[in-house]
Amino acid sequence: MTQKLNKTLVWGIPTRVFHWLLAISFTAAYILSDFEQFQSFHFAFGALAGGLLAGRIIWGLLGPRYSKFSDFPVTFNKITAFVKSIKNSAHVGHNPLASLAMLGIIFIGLATAISGYMLYQIENQSLIIPFEGDFIKETHEILANLFLILVIIHLAGIAVDAFVHKNDSAFFSIFTGQKKGSAPNASLNGFQKMFAVVWFVIAFSLFILAFNLPVTEQQDDHEKAKYEQEDD
Ligand code: HEM
Ligand code: HEM
Is the pLDDT of residue 168 over 90? Predict the structure, then answer.
């Protein structure tokens, strides 16, 4: 593939679509969790985030260069070398600290969505577990808050990077897909293009399925009984 004036395609369209859909779905799921009247939207955006993140794991194994987990420089030596000379080290893909934050977001985020679905099933009494339902509720809330902390760290990292690497910060790359400097482009093969389509179709199907999850009377009663107990 020809390279444009010293620019490298780092994040192809699927990676950027994944990124912005994830940002929207996490933000919506988190904010809407506080409003009972938007419960179906909470489920839907939470499931969309879960579907996107599950697909991102496969993308990390079979996706294009820079998106692959094997291109994440997360060995101890690479992390310490990066921290020691943060100003002079340029990375085409994720830098070592960004890679850690990304892995955290991907796995904690997926665990958040799975625990949310388990919680829904428990509140509907269709999932019986050998421990207290409250344990899953707390787990779901803790994971969601860890997810939020990782997003804040991610945004702080982007801000520090923009400050330290004024002329070649990563900031615009998530909009344009490109970074300065010449390196091999992250071009997609046929399988990756097809996978990307299937990935987003499945994620949107999960959105619709979760939106239509019935909120049963049982669940309302379960919730009411709990609040009454707490009031006593
Ligand atoms: C809830 C909000 C957000 C979440 C959950 C999130 C999550 C992520 C994830 C998972 C990646 C890795 C992409 C991949 O390798 O597939 C990433 C990369 C990136 N994000 Fe975000 N993001 C959020 C908001 C933002 C915002 C508001 C910006 C600001 C422009 C931003 C800028 C970037 C940039 C520049 C990268 C590429 C970093 C690099 O080159 O190492 N993100 N983000
Ligand atoms: C990334 C995705 C998700 C995030 C960030 C998230 C976040 C949250 C948060 C912060 C709460 C606590 C609300 C509170 O009581 O203050 C919550 C509760 C809950 N979430 Fe999620 N959630 C996600 C995905 C899901 C999914 C996929 C489902 C089910 C399909 C789900 C079902 C629930 C349920 C049933 C509750 C408890 C509501 C209640 O009984 O008060 N969540 N979620």
Answer: no
173 CB under 6 A from ligand 1?
yes
List the one residue out of 62, 145, 71, 160 whose CA is nearest residue 104. 145
170 Cβ inside 6 Å of ligand 1:
yes
> Is the confidence at residue 157, as pLDDT, over 80?
yes
Q: How confident is residue 228, by pLDDT bands cut at 50, 70 and 90?
A: low
Q: Tell me: the pLDDT tens digits for 36-84? A: 999 999 999 999 999 999 999 999 999 999 999 999 999 999 999 999 8
Instruction: Sketch out the chain's domains with CATH numbers.
Output: 7-231 (1.20.950)
CA distance 102 to 95: 10
Any ligand 2 atom below 6 A from CB of 66: no
The closest residue, in CA terms, to atom 38 on ligand 2 is: 33
7 phi/psi in degrees, rounded to 5: -120, 145
8 Å CB contact between 184 and 12: no
For the whole model, what pTM was predicted? 0.91
Instruction: Tell me the mean pLDDT in the region 12-32.
Output: 98
CB atoms near residue 17 (< 10 Å) = 16
Q: Give the pLDDT of residue 126.
A: 74
Cβ(108) – ligand 1 distance below 6 Å = no
Task: For ligand 1, pick from 19, 30, 70, 100 the residue to mutate: most ligand atoms within 8 Å of CB.
Answer: 19
Q: Round to the nearest angstrom and report the end-to-end CA distance of the chain.
A: 69
